[in-house]
Amino acid sequence: MGYMNTASMHAGGGEPRWLTDEEQRVWQAYLHATTLFEDHLDRQLQRDAGMPHVYYGLLVQLSRAPHRRKRMTDLAMGAKITRSRLSHAIARLERNGWVRREDCPSDKRGQNAVLTDEGLKILERTAPGHVEAVRQAMFDRLTQEQVEQLGQIMRIVAEGLQPEDSGADLPWLR
Amino acid sequence: MGYMNTASMHAGGGEPRWLTDEEQRVWQAYLHATTLFEDHLDRQLQRDAGMPHVYYGLLVQLSRAPHRRKRMTDLAMGAKITRSRLSHAIARLERNGWVRREDCPSDKRGQNAVLTDEGLKILERTAPGHVEAVRQAMFDRLTQEQVEQLGQIMRIVAEGLQPEDSGADLPWLR
């Protein structure tokens, strides 16, 4: 799914560095696994709590923050999503009564999101089923060695995609 | 982001099988890498061809199929997406002139999607930049051993999420 090997026309220096057959198979497996997994977790959380996976992740972030509150920009960075996607999610969570927004005392333009008692309850009720879904789909299927390998590989990829330099096109800076 | 360790109330048998600290770090790295990567490829393809990553994958599938055509249901299965998401994508690609739909001769209710010459041109023009983006973000950063490990792990996860039994809740069967 990643690309094709038959392209003949291309602009820019040198021959394209096409993937080998083995790399193509790996890339395909990566796309299949990640697409299926995200769909699976969205379905599980929609069924159990009426929210998609990304919303759940925001509640988790807030539950772990001091005083259950976090700046909107930090939340977006933690979830690796754009500010506009975050705003939309927080508005929905606020309508559910699970989160509320407040002005940030230290920064006039900033806002905090705060996890409500109701939000914490939803999280506590949903977490056991969610961790079970994650375990069954991933950790139960891998050896301890594979879990370590996966962690190393994913850290390398994640670090490469968020370079330190300030010009990087990162979702939460858009 | 996966879940919390503090839940005290839960229904269902036994203590929840919370993730260990190490598993949590792996899970977090997985979520960060996959979210950043999908965003990165969407941006790259929007910039270079005005389409998101999933649309590009559909064009690739068609380019590899005999006579550049594929049944809609097979396309959805190949992309691991729902039929409604596929319909939406194909409608957009059709408006761009890159794909056309035709009735399936062997199945009165079925439809094929066909890659047009224009669609093939777009793919050929876009593929070199796309494969470069995939290489830079993933394959250039991993050792040959890590690429093999990633392939094994992703195949295990993907297979677990699409069991053979007919009752499975798979996106393309919804």
Number of domains of chain A: 1
CATH homologous superfamily caption of chain A: Winged helix-like DNA-binding domain superfamily/Winged helix DNA-binding domain
CATH class of chain A: Mainly Alpha
Structural category of chain A:
mainly alpha
- Enumerate the spans of chain A where pLDDT stays under 50 for 5 or more consecutive residues: 1-11
CATH topology grouping of chain A: Arc Repressor Mutant, subunit A
Neighbour order of strands in the largest sheet of chain A:
1-3-2
- Greatest contact between two chains: A-B, 77 and 77 residues
Proper CATH architecture of chain A: Orthogonal Bundle
Q: Nearest-angstrom radius of gyration of chain A?
A: 20 Å
Q: How many individual β-strands of chain A?
A: 3
Short description:
Two copies of one chain form a homodimer. Chain A is mainly alpha-helical and 174 residues long. Chain A has helices spanning 21-49, 53-64, 72-79, 83-95, 117-137, 144-161; strands spanning 69-71, 99-103, 111-115.
Tell me about this structure.
- 2 copies of one chain form a homodimer.
- Chain A has one domain: Arc Repressor Mutant, subunit A, CATH 1.10.10.
- The first copy, chain A, has 174 residues and is mainly alpha-helical.
- In chain A, 40% of the residues are buried.
- In chain A, a hairpin with a 7-residue loop joins strand 2 and strand 3.
- Residues 1-11 of chain A have low confidence and may be disordered.
- A 3-stranded antiparallel sheet of chain A has the order 1-3-2.
- The two termini of chain A are 28 Å apart.
- Chain A contains 6 helices and 3 strands.
- In chain A, helix 1 packs antiparallel against helix 5 (117-137) and helix 3 (72-79) crosses helix 4.
- The first copy, chain A, has helices at residues 21-49, 53-64, 72-79, 83-95, 117-137, 144-161, and strands at residues 69-71, 99-103, 111-115.
- Chains A and B meet through helix 1, helix 2, helix 5 and helix 6 of A and helix 1, helix 2, helix 5 and helix 6 of B.
